[in-house]
Amino acid sequence: MKNLLFLFLFLFAVSCSKDKKTQPLASIEKIEYIDLDYEKQSGVIIDIKVNDSSIIKKLENKQLRGFRIYSIKEKDRNYFFYEVWKAPIRKGNVFSFLIRTSYFSQNISDKEEKKKRIWNKDNITKALSGDVGLIFDKDSVHVKPGKDLKIVIQMLKD
């Protein structure tokens, strides 16, 4: 009996010590900002690779209730609008979300930083390069950028 207990503990220790790499539930693959003219609202397209079947099912069933870009200050998040009643575009296990925004179309004064913020490609890239949140009814999924994240900024002025 003692040998069996020792063998069990040894196998348990060996199985716990292995470096197991797990895939995240979801990761950001690509972020694209498209600056449009005054007649059409600019937008951010975020491609998220989803590795979890329960999240895929919720997205297909239009259960997404909110979309949050954490790198944008909380007070400025109302400049970003995602139409939750539409299902995101799906290609395999990559979902594309179109978020409309007027946030980067104007140079605004930031009272906290006491300066005027000027939006150029570098500043927009920095503002969009953080994590995002997929908010469902009773839970949310925090999505981090993947290791091969691509950020594309298309400006009218270029």
From TrEMBL:
Protein name per its UniProtKB record? DUF1425 domain-containing protein
